[in-house]
Design brief:
By secondary structure, the chain is α+β, with helices and mostly antiparallel strands. It has 20 helices and 39 strands. Among the domains are: 96 residues, Phosphorylase Kinase, domain 1; 304 residues, Transferase(Phosphotransferase), domain 1, CATH 1.10.510.10; 83 residues, no CATH class; 97 residues, Urease, subunit B (Ribbon), CATH 2.10.150. The longest helix is centred in the last third of the chain and has 26 residues. The two termini are 64 Å apart. This is non-specific serine/threonine protein kinase.
Length: 860
């Protein structure tokens, strides 16, 4: 396979004809590169032999299959994916391993683009609601089909949702799917895109509910134009997905029906058990916002509502414990009876669950059920240009219907929506008759009706204490025969007491109560071992943070010092040549070492044995031989013919001369030389200032949030113009210092450790806890190699339970009308409550039945 070439004008990666012979994988000719991601490269390809086949998309994975076990696993997963035959799953048509050992998957080429393309064209605006729900339904049906066959997608995102030429959604990229029954499922490595990953997926745990979370992320983005969390840093996304609650979708799209928002937020619950049990339950909840008209034209065929039960064999009750029945009958688009559904919903609700939006008014509890004939005349109309809010139209003909009412929520939500924080634990009580509708505003009446309905669902708990108002006492005394004057006096006295005690007087005598909750606090300390590596990306699953290798420019200084070594050279002897002459007619010998004394007294010794040839008159026999002065020194440098005399025999037949002067004789001389200590001392004087300057330069290279792994390495480099032992009067020494070291980002470590601690707190004590102050960390770093380090982090903090306004309001309804001891018992059983302080106004023995008269706060 050839290397990728540069992109063309359309952004595609073209492969030239000259490269076509080698630009192939298996039996496929690569036409151009369609895209490149973190795990693979995708090419548009065509079969080399079967030319009539349409073009395909070939995905080449980056991970080589370098062991028999990995190859066997790839083959097993490829065979599993081959069995996924569904109208909304992009089919796998081929798979293999190329010559370099890299696996590849071949699917049909979807020419309709991806969901990401549609979102880009929307430019940050939500898609039309019918289109968004149709896409989610089609993708959901594909996911449910895969789940039933033991496959989890794990990387659901807009890039993996493709479209046919006819606009049908196709779910793609099952390349990282796992067998649902795998023993290693809970320990699986993190795979996926952080912007769409479920909280447990960051911990390496995946399940069907992980895909439900990703599908909820997809629905959030389609209906709002925004991602659940807009960050791009993997560590930040991990923290936000595991710890933070997303913005409600209607913050971005106010026209979105409240039940759809509630369904999406439940799909985004942090805990798997708080989400929908499976994909069908989630999709049904999304479609439940239209209780009068059934599925739209584009949802009737492709939505999960139109045949999913037949496919799975499970009824709605099996899909979701909180969803008792579907909100419409797809066969005839029939709407269940409103009051029947209201009763069923109220029986299953708890006060800790959320309620529909404030713009929807629930029917009064006393309102009779409407006849089916009346309801059948109501019809659903699609949203107008102003937004998505559906309008409930009056029947075409009929009296008494009044003005059309604008609806932005449903008449009924099929399943309760989890509020922020744990559910409320309820103590049941005996029911009381509701006040007359004229005694309070309609909104207050509706709230009280819902609270009483929820509390009356199981009346096996503590009975409410009887109470009598002060007016009831006055009336009783009047019946006992007290005179009119006595009654007036008592009334005046009672009014004075009430005024002095500060009790409010409006619309009669109103009761009040003040409740102070002390939230539970927990202190947690943990030690984590992280890895920091150069060039690595933040990887929460492997506890990996990025690191950088920094180096400073070299800094140099020089200094000249005198050489401290002293020595002297020994004297040398002069060298020369002596010529011997023989006056006899026979040869004569002179032995080596024969000493001859010059005219100035310098003694010279010959260096070899010689034999002087015989004389032949009128010529003498002669021979020359090297000689040296016996003593060293310049005195041996004799001039020519300083030796010109008879020698060696008593008959004076041998003559010796030095025809040339002797040279090289030298007297002993003193000199200085460079010692190693001269170089070391000069370097030691220069090094400290240079190292300090280099370390300051190293510190300037670090960002404010970066920390060094130990001290930077600042080894000085020393050079000199003379080496130790060289004869010189002085030496120049130069010192060069450059610092290098490994640094890591402290904020990344703190973010990761904070997320880990928060997750530990949630596992140990439940959700709803927040740190009271920033997490305290102590980091110990040690080098583990040239480009990696091990970080040991001791982290600790204190967490306090945070009560939301909706939780406090729910608690008000829970304790309304109870006596103080019952109220304290109920509140102390709630998650996150450490203690309760309760005070009543003068003369009260029970809490007000009206929750608005109860003030409940949580200690900061």
């Amino acid at each position: 396979m050839t290397r990728d070439q540069g992109p063309d004008e359309d952004g595609h990666q073209e492969i030239t004809r000259q490269q076509a012979a080698s630009a192939r994988i298996g039996n496929y000719l690569l036409l151009r590169r369609l895209g490149r991601g973190g795990f693979s490269t995708v090419y548009l390809a065509r079969h080399l032999i079967l030319q009539s086949r349409p073009p395909v998309a070939l995905k080449r994975l980056f991970t080589p299959l370098d062991s028999p076990e990995i190859r066997a696993r790839f083959i097993e997963e490829a065979r599993l994916l081959e069995e996924l035959h569904h109208p909304h799953i992009l089919p796998l048509v081929d798979a293999g391993i190329d010559e370099e050992g890299f696996p590849y998957l071949v699917t049909l080429y979807a020419a309709g683009g991806s969901l990401r393309d549609r979102l880009r064209r929307a430019s940050g605006r939500p898609l039309p609601l019918e289109e968004a729900l149709a896409i989610v339904a089609q993708v959901g049906k594909a996911l449910h089909y895969a789940h039933e066959r033991g496959v989890i997608h794990r990387d659901l995102k807009p890039e993996n949702v493709l479209f046919t030429d006819h606009g049908e959604a196709l779910l793609a990229d099952f390349g990282i799917a796992f067998l649902l029954g795998s023993r290693s499922l809970e320990q699986a490595s993190v795979s996926g895109t952080p912007a769409y990953m479920a909280p447990e997926q960051f911990r390496g745990q995946v399940s069907r509910q992980s895909d439900v979370y990703a599908l909820a992320c997809l629905a959030y983005e389609l209906t709002t134009g925004h991602r659940v969390f807009e960050d791009h840093d993997a560590l930040v996304l991990m923290y936000r997905h595991t710890q933070e609650e997303p913005q409600p979708p209607r913050v971005y799209n106010p026209h979105l029906p409240a039940p759809i928002e509630a369904a999406i937020l439940r799909g985004l619950a942090k805990e798997r058990t708080d989400r929908y049990a499976d994909v069908p339950s989630f999709v049904r909840a999304l479609h439940a916002f239209r209780p009068f008209g059934g599925p739209g034209q584009d949802l009737g065929e492709t939505g999960l509502m139109a045949g999913l039960d037949d496919e799975t064999g499970a009824g709605p009750a099996e899909d979701d414990a909180d969803c008792e029945s579907p909100l419409w009958d797809t066969a005839g688009a029939r709407t269940p009876d409103l009051q029947t559904r209201l009763a069923a919903a109220d029986d299953g609700e708890r006060l800790g669950r959320g309620s529909p939006g404030s713009d929807w008014r629930w029917p009064a509890a006393s309102r009779p059920a409407e006849p089916p004939a009346e309801r059948s005349r109501e019809r659903w109309t699609p949203p107008g240009p102003s937004g998505y809010g559906p309008t409930l139209q009056p029947p075409a003909s009929g009296a008494g219907r009044g003005t059309p009412e604008r609806q932005t929520g449903p008449a009924l939500v099929s399943s309760a929506v989890q509020a922020s924080g744990p559910g409320i634990i309820e103590l049941a009580r005996l029911s009381r008759p509701s006040p007359r509708p004229t005694d309070r505003p309609a909104s207050q009446e509706g709230a009280q009706t819902r609270a009483l309905a929820a509390l009356d669902a199981g009346t096996t708990g503590l009975p409410a204490s009887p109470r009598r108002t002060p007016l009831a006492w006055l009336t009783g005394w009047g019946r006992r025969g007290l005179g009119k004057l006595a009654l007036i006096s008592l009334a005046i006295l009672l009014a004075a007491l009430l005024l002095m005690s500060g009790l409010p007087l409006s619309r009669g005598l109103l009761l009040s109560a003040r409740v102070q909750i002390v939230p539970a606090t927990h202190t947690l300390q943990r030690t984590y071992t992280l890895s920091a590596r150069v060039g690595a990306q933040a990887d929460p699953a492997r506890l990996l943070v990025p690191a950088r290798l920094l180096s400073t420019p070299p800094q140099s200084q020089s200094r000249q010092v005198s050489a401290s070594g002293h020595a002297s050279t020994p004297g040398t002897r002069a060298q020369g040549v002596l010529t011997f002459y023989n006056g006899k007619f026979i040869p004569q010998a002179v032995p080596k070492g024969t000493t001859i004394t010059a005219s100035n007294g310098v003694k010279v010794s010959i260096d070899a044995d010689i034999s002087i040839p015989a004389g032949n008159p009128p010529n003498f026999g002669q021979i020359s031989v090297s000689a040296h002065a016996v003593d060293s020194g310049s005195a041996g440098n004799i001039k020519a013919l300083a030796i010109n005399q008879f020698c060696c025999t008593s008959d004076q037949t041998i003559t010796v001369k030095n025809l040339q002067p002797f040279t090289g004789g030298q007297d002993p001389q003193s000199y200085t030389f460079v010692q190693q200590s001269d170089i070391d001392n000069a370097a030691s004087a220069l090094t400290p200032a240079l190292v300090q300057s280099a370390r300051a330069a190293f510190a300037s290279l670090k960002s404010a949030s970066e920390e060094s792994v130990g001290d930077p390495q600042c080894a000085p480099q020393v050079s000199s113009d003379h080496r130790a032992g060289d004869r010189a009067a002085s030496v120049t020494v130069s010192v060069t210092v450059a610092c290098s070291g490994l640094v890591y980002d402290r904020n990344s470590v703190t973010t990761l450790v904070t997320a880990l601690l928060n997750a530990d707190v949630a596992r140990s004590y439940g959700g709803g806890y927040r740190p009271t102050q920033p997490i305290q960390t102590q980091i110990s770093a040690a080098r583990a190699g040239d480009q990696s380090a091990v970080l040991t982090v001791q982290a600790s903090g204190t967490w306090r339970y945070q009560f939301s306004a909706s939780q406090l309001n729910a608690l008000k309804q829970l304790i309304a009308g109870r006596d103080p001891e019952q109220a304290r018992t109920i509140l102390r059983r709630q998650p996150g409550v450490a203690d309760v302080t309760l005070s009543l106004a003068l003369g009260q023995s029970t809490l007000p039945t009206d929750p608005t008269r109860i003030t409940i706060t949580a200690s900061p």
